[in-house]
Structure to design on (170 residues):
């Protein structure tokens, strides 16, 4: 997909997910979640082309301007939207599918210092509420909805809906 088409897709995706978004120009200039995704694409490209130090430096610059930390090795699909964004952390071996929405202060993290795949895989059409923690090499099934402040340490079946009234650790 040509880069301009991808940028327009990102802008339109943000508008479709945020009722406060008024137009593409506003989103392009004032949405740190979108800036973080654009920055990640550059860092990821550098990482995959063996420019790992430059990728890490670039991702740190993006983090310092957006408050969103995405490791350059993380794999992110299309139409990913981070609303508000501050405090989001996405680990190196995280895999995020298409049409995923995430709110602020979410962590996709590891549970230890093991090597290999150690971060979550988020399948398509998942919503992750503010403050949620998804930890370890777990899979969040397609269409699942994770409530705010949930802590997930085991796989979730597709279309699992952790209601906001639920307060438990999986």
């Amino acid at each position: 997909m040509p880069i301009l088409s991808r940028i327009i897709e990102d802008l339109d995706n943000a508008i479709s997910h945020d009722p406060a978004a008024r137009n593409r120009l506003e989103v392009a200039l004032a949405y740190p979640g979108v800036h973080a995704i654009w920055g990640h694409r550059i860092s990821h490209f550098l990482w995959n082309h063996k420019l790992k130090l430059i990728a890490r430096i670039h991702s740190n610059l993006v983090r310092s301007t957006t408050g969103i930390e995405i490791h350059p090795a993380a794999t992110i699909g299309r139409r990913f939207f981070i609303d508000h964004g501050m405090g989001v952390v996405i680990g190196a071996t995280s895999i995020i599918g298409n049409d995923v929405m995430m709110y602020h202060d979410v962590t996709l993290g590891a549970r230890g210092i093991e090597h290999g795949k150690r971060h979550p895989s988020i399948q398509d059409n998942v919503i992750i509420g503010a403050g949620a923690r998804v930890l370890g090499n777990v899979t969040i099934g397609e269409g699942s909805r994770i409530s705010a402040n949930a802590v997930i340490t085991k796989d979730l079946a597709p279309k699992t809906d952790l209601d906001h009234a639920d307060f438990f650790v999986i």
